[in-house]
Amino acid sequence: GFAPGIVPGISSAIQCFTDPGDKIMIQPPVYHPFAMIIRENGRETVNNPLILENGRYRMDFNHMQEAVRGCRMFILCNPHNPGGRVWSPEELRRVAEICTANGTLVVSDEIHADLTLPGRRHTVFATVSEQARMNSVTYMAPSKTFNVPGLGSSYVICQNPDLFAKYQNFVSGRELAEGHVFAYEGLISAYSGPAGEEWLAQALDYVQENIRFIDRELRRRMPKIKAIMPDASYLVFLDCRELNLSQKELVEFFVDGARLALNDGSIFGKEGEGFMRLNAGCPRSILERALNQLEEAYQNRGFRRQQAQG
Predict the structure, then answer these.
(1) What is the set of domains in the chain, with CATH numbers?
(2) What value, to the nearest 5°, has the Cα angle with vertex 238 and ends 246 and 120?
């Protein structure tokens, strides 16, 4: 079915499948509109924070089994933004088991699915088990992949006929079930034919090299800032906790010091404090300039000197 955007789509799912006051689980640090639409629809957010281990995020299933109790819905970010994880089939099956056993509907945001980087493989949540198939609603879009968010074209897939009928009735009654001609034509042309595929393969190779460049330069020039290497997408979460700055100081360091407009990690939840999110979906020359400015700010703050002493 059509959705005017993934966030409006998830908001519709919240209104359709839950009631005001219901609990909805998310996994911070996570895409910030999740918490916002839960709150603004009068629902309660339950956090199941991810664990950062050796530069890689993983799910905390022990905590999830406790946290999920009483939750009507779980919003999954797959691939995860800003953590960059492409979740494995085993991890997703575990999510399906826990949520099905608890009667918790899984809403899977898979907007970054097509941006899985070379060598990684995306798994659609609904495909990992019969439980997942019958207890989920999936949102996808060409917008991130082909840089066409202006088309306002996303889509929802649900293989449980009862859930889908309930959802379609809900969005139809609110005039949210149909798009415009550009939305449909844009989506079809992006996904059909070899041109889109060839372009995407080249774009992903370029993004992958950008990410390697960022990682290499940070290790060499600014080792107190560490790139969380993503499995998918062009968004890189930077772990800046070793700089020992408050979040306010960290933002000032990037904005005023380095003159860079990055996303403040704390918007993704308190688990994002000490982090900043960098967009690597740009020409390499822009990244080079950004890293030069960052290094200058880094040296001006004396971070390199401290390191030499320590």
Answers:
(1) 2-191 (3.40.640.10), 195-309 (3.90.1150.10)
(2) 155
